[in-house]
Amino acid sequence: MLDQASSSALIEKLQWRYATKKFDAAKIVSAEKVESILEAARLAPTSSGLQPFQVIVVTNKDIRAKLQAASYGQAQVTEASHLLVFAAWDNYTDARIDDVVTRTAADRGAPIEAVAEYYNNLKGMYLPRPADVNYEHAARQAYIAFGLALAQAAFEGVDATPMEGFDPAQVDEILGLKAHGLRSVTLLPIGYRAAEGDWLKDLPKVRKSRADLIVEVK
Ligand SMILES: Cc1cc2nc3c(=O)[nH]c(=O)nc-3n(C[C@H](O)[C@H](O)[C@H](O)COP(=O)(O)O)c2cc1C
Q: Which protein residue has the closest C-alpha to ligand 1 atom 27?
């Protein structure tokens, strides 16, 4: 039976959350809540289970000041308690896919060869493609984790701002992502909304109606 209480709890939190414009810089998110938000990202489903991204947790003030400058000055980057950076693989490689094969075989107690067959087919499709195509595919997977982390933050009563408003080349440079074969995709500052000074805080949500969004094919 549908659990009405818990199914509506997430919806209530999604109504409560908003793209926070001003954080209270004095309020710090507890380590437990940060971990639960990161765990939602870790548990996100991804195409073929590749998890082709990393989540970087930035608390360093100097680095965050540089990242703010690379984000058109958006204050959430420095004023939030923690800054999560979602960064996707810049390409698929033999080694990256082999790592998934090894872990899948280990976690499921299956022979490597049984798992490798599927991933060898995947390599045949992915490795010849241009790096940009593979990056875009990886970035789409990162967005799933980003969305779940955003929802989990709301579930925990933690404010967050989903952000694409930054210069990815600059963010990559500041965090040294290229050396790790990564490219920044999105930012997620998390923290607690400021009591004053946020123009968006009390405005109603703007969303399409159900009729405009949902198409039913019966
Ligand atoms: C992928 C993505 C990128 C966004 N980039 C920014 C951003 O750079 N700065 C910002 O303040 N809000 C940003 N937003 C917030 C959206 O404007 C906001 O989510 C949308 O207007 C809906 O409002 P709500 O989140 O308050 O419900 C972004 C949202 C998403 C999903």
A: 18
Q: 101 and 116 in contact (C-beta within 8 Å)?
A: yes
Give the alpha-carbon dihedral of 108, 111, 112, 114, to 10 degrees.
-100
Q: Separation of 150 CA from ligand 1 center, angstroms?
A: 11
Note the pTM of the prediction, 2 decimals. 0.96
**Pocket-testing residue among 12, 71, 163, 186, ligand 1, by greatest number of atoms within 8 A of Cβ:** 163
Q: Give the atom of ligand 1 at the shortest distance from the alpha carbon of 71.
A: 8
Domain ranges of the chain: 4-88+134-194, 93-128
User: With a 6 A CB cut-off, is 208 part of the ligand 1 pocket?
Assistant: no
Q: Is the dihedral of CA 147, 53, 29, 26 positive or negative?
A: negative
CATH number of 4-88+134-194: 3.40.109.10
pLDDT band of 49, cuts 50, 70, 90: very high
Query: 164-193, pLDDT tens digit by residue?
Result: 999 999 999 999 999 999 999 999 999 999
